[in-house]
Amino acid sequence: MAFLDIIILIVKALVLALAATTLFAYFTLFERLLLARLQNRIGPNRAGYIPLPGGRKILGGWLQPAADAVKLFFKEDVTPALADKWVYLISPAFATVPALIIWATIPLGCWPSGGDGVLPLGGCAPAGGSNFLQLAEISVGILYLLAVTSVGVYGIAIAGWSSNNKYSMLGGVRASAQVISYELALGLSVLAVVMQAESFSTAEIVNRQWGWWFIVPQFLGFVIFLLSSTAEVVRAPFDLVEAEQELVGGYNTEFGSMKFALFFMSEYIKLVAMNAIAVTLFLGGWHFPGLYTLAQFVTANAGQFAGNAVFGLLSLGAFLLKVTLLSFLSVWIRATVPRVRYDQLMYLGWKILLPLALFNVALTAVLNVLIPDNRYISGGIAFVVGLIAVVVVASMRGPRKPPASQVTLVKKEASR
Amino acid sequence: MLGEIVKGLGTTLKYLFKKPVTVQYPEVKRPVRERFRGRHELKRFENGMERCIGCALCAAACPADAILVVPAENNPEHPNSPGERYAATYEINMLRCIFCGYCEDACPTNAIVLEHQYELSFYDRKSSIYTKEMLLVPPEKGHGEIPPILQQLNRRPSPPAQIDL
């Protein structure tokens, strides 16, 4: 690899990391505004407004993330006397780094570069070149994603342990148990996608979805993925890790200042990254109807580079739009659904999602073997079966506690 | 279960398109109730004389010990108040005041009244003490209400209790 390539790679990595952290900052604003509106409030509308003539103000609140960051930076940094100091100090980094490096293998868009620079139909990397909008194209990208998302729980677990606080400890233990439980369903739903695409590479999975997003043949897998990824990033309604009523603040009770901000950041970056993975696996990644036609039109009229640039920016826009839609869904769910009980969490993970995911893997395998040639017929069947499975399972009742003691009310006979 | 979740999501989505109920406080101020107990004011008579006669009953009634009254004799040529004495110093410590309104009840001349001003923040403890100059209303804002102590003089004495023997 040439020296210049290394420089470009470093710059790309830096830009991606900064973009992810900025994305986090503005996702918090997006969430606060949307959550407020869903609850009939206004939300942050002060910081950074632009005054207009006539006393009107617009764009209030867009500097709120900056104000929050400045506030957190200048808070006093306290380390508890009984904490295990080095582990305590290193745990925020343990949580943040995996959240940031998730983004490396996600194809954020398609900007063909290198090689002959010609955009192949239905694919992205030109012959001998690569996709400029994907930091690292590795052949086992999916395994990398799964590995990195579960490494993040170490940060939470050791944060809870090193704080030397009962509540933090309980929060960390809950996080580990929850992530391990939902890892299985998550992994199996991703496995079905891998079987569908016949590849472990994220770029290849996206290419396979040209004109046929995997949400159709993998509808069941999509639902399982959404549920278990919400649990995997310990987000409402599965945020038992930081159940204020029971655990104060959960694993981050003893963390203040920028250390707390890092935990907060890792949580939100992981959430957005999970949405990005869902888009990559099920919603066609950067694909959008009409993109190729438009790119060919621009290429014919304005040259290869302009065509690739237009395609790159538009595909990035399409990807971000889909991520925003999924983020809207997660904020919406957070505003609506109350936190589940711990036994309900375990019931859902082990007794509903895991069998469903196994069923989905079996369904995908059978359909791919029986109808290998026509993806529309097999996908249609899979969609219908998946829809029926989701509706049937969801209409079954949740866990019911048996009555603690059988009490029979007997009508007392009137004594004469 | 699916039906309930969809119903809940629909409810929250409905609120997304409704007007928020938030009142934007510093710009929009909701009116307070008629009997709201906010910051105190020392009232005046119609002719601009202070109603306070320096009796210190308010200070005695104050459960939080927030009021300090130092009375002084009126100068007969230029009286501050109609009576013999007036309040030379009248201070209320707003950090101690609990806005119970007992001072208002105790006052024989209706001089101290809890009014509707409620924005009472300050940067240091010293500025929490409101002096007489701050509490007294301007001279042109006096009113002619007869003090309760004089109203009682006009009232007929209650008839003696009828006792059936």
Describe the structure.
The complex is a heterodimer of chains A (about 425) and B (about 160). With about 425 residues, chain A is mostly helical. Chain A is built from 13 helices and four strands. Chain A has helices at about 5-40, 65-75, 85-100, 140-160, 165-195, 200-210, 220-230, 245, 255-280, 290-300, 305-335, 340-370, 375-395, and strands spanning about 50, 55-60, 110-115, 130. Chain A is globular. Chain B has about 160 residues and is an alpha+beta fold. Chain B contains five helices and five strands. Chain B has helices spanning about 1-15, 55-60, 100-105, 130-135, 150-155, and strands spanning about 40, 65-75, 85-95, 110-115, 130. In chain B, the strands form two sheets. In chain B, strands 2-3-5 form a three-stranded antiparallel sheet. The model of chain B has no long low-confidence stretch (mean pLDDT about 85). Classes of the chains: A mainly alpha (about 425), B alpha+beta (about 160).
* Derived structural class of chain A: mainly alpha
The major beta sheet of chain A can be summarized as: 2 strands, antiparallel
Pair with the most extensive interface?
A-B, 20 and 16 residues
Q: Supply Rg of chain B.
A: 24 Å
Mean pLDDT of chain B: 86
Low-confidence stretches of chain B: none
**Molecular shape of chain B:** elongated
The low-confidence parts of chain A are none
Strand order of the largest sheet of chain B: 2-3-5
Q: State the order of secondary-structure elements of chain B, H for helix, E for strand.
A: HEHEEHEEHH
Strand content of chain B: 5-15%
Number of strands of chain B: 5
Oligomerization status of the protein chains: heterodimer
Number of strands of chain A: 4
Spatial order of strands in the largest sheet of chain A: 1-2
